[in-house]
């Protein structure tokens, strides 16, 4: 019986997942630790509006469990020391240096965790990989733990998280499946019992470690592949006069194909898809499976193409120059209902337009200005001063839209649909262009108002 859980990493995965585990297992004490003090302070903020992550439904879960059996702390060692089970939920970004640069996952944070656990543990522990990791990381973890620990037993489990941002709480409450990979039956059962508090047993799958690790990469690769597949067809639709939504609808009705994840867009983003596919590509190449690697790499290349294509469409339509023109960006997050902008298509589209000296004004309901500048500065395309000179972030949509030459919809936030578009039209320069990267707005309505409306895949 597990009495105490620690989770290292209070991010988009660790925070919501542990909140739900604590909510559904009031008899287990769950402590989420992070070395980022500001982040922990935000998780502990009495005002739930200040939680570091925006997720619909999250505040209710935290309100129920926090202080009862859910705790957020920076005392990493103490939490490790007390726990029977430790989740590792730290970030695993793509390497930016050395071997595998740009493709392999950077495991330094994972390794640091393993060494810290080994140094502190004085009783047996079940260590659960929650972060997405390349296949066979569990082996590396085990080796570090066994060689640097003080003789206690470590059982490693892989328990990849399939939640999507923006729907994290509902995904956690009603998962399609929970996947647990491992070698030790008792350790596996201990984790099964925790999920069985609210997940039907037939949805809890157990496999060996490697299958579990690989399944996570493959699930994300398949999902991203569907988006790139429909996006490739969106370009064909634009060239031929077919409508990509109509095609997606017709194709998705085939029960073998299914209707979900066929929404053409300006390109997928998020912390997982690109990273996991690059990882899959890297692993395939490391086994000399070049055809396999090339196949999956194409999903990324098509996604890059889609972002570039959208930016070029804007420039071409605006008489081949956007220099000095005011372009309002509606949305910066990589999808709606999240304040996360990692790998968001908006970053790359903005970068492309800024190279042409466009004047961009961004409004996003949840992403703060500092983060937007950080995203752009991280590309290193131009100086931070130039990014601030060319791109402005505003707090209200009307400030972004006033006097704009064009509007570009980058995120499918529901509120964009509700704007008074007749009024927007009056406030904009003529001709008033709308470039809809999410197929969010209604073509007929906008055309009646006199907009020049362009959408992906039409
Ligand atoms: C296909 C389409 O299914 C059908 O809708 C269309 O009208 C005509 O083309 P068909 O070629 O008769 O039908 O057979 P299908 O069952 O789709 O199989 C095609 C090939 O894919 C077969 O060689 C089959 O063995 C193979 N296949 C199918 C797999 O290897 N794995 C699978 O999971 C499914
Ligand atoms: C994804 C997986 O869905 C989740 O299971 C995994 O645990 C983490 O990675 P997430 O990145 O949060 O989740 O969001 P998701 O909803 O999958 O969207 C990813 C990107 O694809 C977004 O930019 C989204 O806008 C885009 N997308 C998705 C499309 O462009 N079209 C679609 O039809 C679906
Ligand atoms: P994810 O989307 O995978 O949850 P995030 O970047 O949102 O990723 O969260 C990962 C968190 O893990 C960050 O808040 C980071 O500070 C934390 N972290 C990374 N390494 C350690 C460590 N060794 N000890 C404690 N916290 C860590």
Automatic annotation (TrEMBL):
It holds the Pfam family UDPG_MGDP_dh. It is an enzyme of class 1 (oxidoreductase). Pathway: Nucleotide-sugar biosynthesis; UDP-alpha-D-glucuronate biosynthesis; UDP-alpha-D-glucuronate from UDP-alpha-D-glucose: step 1/1. It catalyses: UDP-alpha-D-glucose + 2 NAD(+) + H2O = UDP-alpha-D-glucuronate + 2 NADH + 3 H(+). Residues 328-443 form the UDP-glucose/GDP-mannose dehydrogenase C-terminal domain. Its EC number is 1.1.1.22. Gene3D superfamilies: Cytochrome c1, transmembrane anchor, C-terminal, NAD(P)-binding Rossmann-like Domain. SMART domains: UDPG_MGDP_dh_C. SUPFAM superfamilies: 6-phosphogluconate dehydrogenase C-terminal domain-like, NAD(P)-binding Rossmann-fold domains, UDP-glucose/GDP-mannose dehydrogenase C-terminal domain. Keywords: NAD, Oxidoreductase. PANTHER family: UDP-GLUCOSE 6-DEHYDROGENASE, UDP-GLUCOSE DEHYDROGENASE/UDP-MANNAC DEHYDROGENASE. Belongs to the UDP-glucose/GDP-mannose dehydrogenase family. This is UDP-glucose 6-dehydrogenase. It comes from Sphingobacterium suaedae. The lineage of its organism: Bacteria, Pseudomonadati, Bacteroidota, Sphingobacteriia, Sphingobacteriales.
């Amino acid at each position: 019986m597990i009495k105490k859980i620690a989770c290292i990493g209070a991010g988009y995965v660790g925070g919501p997942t542990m909140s739900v585990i604590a909510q559904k297992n009031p008899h287990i004490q769950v402590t989420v630790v992070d070395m980022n003090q500001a982040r922990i302070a935000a998780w502990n903020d009495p005002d739930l509006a200040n939680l570091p992550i925006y997720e619909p439904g999250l505040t209710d879960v935290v309100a129920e469990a926090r202080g009862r059996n859910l705790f957020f702390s920076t005392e990493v060692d103490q939490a490790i020391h007390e726990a029977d089970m430790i989740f590792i939920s730290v970030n695993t970004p793509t390497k930016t240096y050395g071997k595998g640069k740009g493709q392999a996952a950077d495991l330094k944070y994972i390794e640091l965790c393993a060494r810290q656990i080994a140094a502190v543990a004085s009783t047996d522990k079940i260590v659960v990989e929650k972060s997405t990791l390349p296949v066979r990381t569990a082996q590396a973890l085990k080796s570090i733990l066994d060689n640097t620990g003080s003789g206690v037993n470590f059982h490693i489990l892989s328990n990849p998280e399939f939640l999507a941002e923006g729907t994290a709480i509902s995904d956690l409450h009603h998962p399609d499946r929970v996947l647990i990979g491992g070698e030790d039956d008792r350790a596996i059962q201990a984790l099964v019992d925790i999920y069985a508090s609210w997940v039907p047993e037939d949805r809890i799958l157990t496999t060996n470690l490697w299958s579990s690790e690989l399944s996570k990469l493959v699930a994300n690769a398949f999902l991203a592949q569907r988006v790139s597949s429909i996006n490739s067809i969106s370009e064909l639709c634009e060239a031929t006069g077919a409508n990509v939504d109509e095609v997606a609808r017709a194709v998705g009705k085939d029960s073998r194909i299914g209707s979900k994840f066929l929404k053409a867009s300006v390109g997928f983003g998020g912390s997982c898809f690109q990273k996991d596919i690059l990882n899959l590509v890297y692993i395939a190449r490391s086994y000399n499976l070049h055809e396999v690697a090339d196949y999956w790499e194409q999903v990324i290349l098509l996604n890059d193409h889609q972002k570039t294509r959208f930016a070029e469409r804007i420039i071409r339509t605006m008489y081949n120059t956007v220099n000095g023109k005011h372009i309002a960006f509606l949305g910066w997050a990589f999808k709606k209902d999240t304040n996360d902008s990692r790998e968001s298509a908006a970053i790359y589209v903005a970068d492309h337009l800024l190279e042409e000296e466009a004047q961009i004004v961004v409004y996003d309901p949840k992403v703060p200005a500092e983060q937007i500048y950080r995203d752009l500065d991280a590309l290193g395309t131009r100086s931070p001063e130039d990014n601030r000179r060319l791109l402005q972030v505003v707090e209200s949509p009307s400030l972004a839209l006033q006097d704009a030459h064009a509007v570009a919809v980058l995120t499918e936030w529901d509120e964009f649909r509700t704007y008074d578009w007749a009024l927007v039209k009056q406030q904009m320069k003529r001709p008033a262009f709308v470039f809809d990267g999410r197929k969010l707005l209604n073509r007929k309505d906008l055309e009646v108002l006199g907009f020049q409306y362009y959408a992906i895949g039409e």
